[in-house]
Amino acid sequence: MAAVVLENISKKYGNVTALKSISFQMDDGEIFGLIGPDGAGKSTLFRILATLLQADEGRASVAGHDVVKEYKQIRKKVGYMPGRFSLYQDLSVEENLSFFATIFGTTIQENYDLVKDIYVQIEPFKRRLAGQLSGGMKQKLALCCALIHKPEVLFLDEPTTGVDAVSRKEFWEMLQSLKEKNIAILVSTPYMDEAGLCDRIALIQNGEILKIDSPRQMIRDFKKPLYAIKTEHTYSALNYLRSASYTRSALPFGEFIHLTTAKSYTPFQIKDDLERVGIPIQEVKTAAPSIEDIFLDLSETNELIDG
Amino acid sequence: MQTLRYLIQKEFIQIFRNRALLPMMTLLPIIQLIVLSNAASNDVKEVRLVMVDNDQSEISRSLTRKISANDRFTLVEVSFSRDAAFELMQRNKVDIILEVPSNFEREYYRGETPKVQMLVNAINGQQATVGSGYLNNIIASLSAEIQRDEPLMIGAYTSPAKALVEASSNNWYNPELKYPHFMAPGILAELAALLTIVLSAMNVVREREIGTIEQINVTPIKKWEFILGKLVPFLCIGLVLVTVGLLASKLIFDIPIRGNLLLVFGYAVINLVCVLGLGLLISNFADTQQQAIFVAFFFVLIFILMCGLFTPIESMPKWAQYATIPNPLAHFISVTRKVLLKGSGFWDIRWEFIYTIILAVLFNVAAVWSYKKQQ
Question: Global pTM?
Answer without folding.
Answer: 0.78
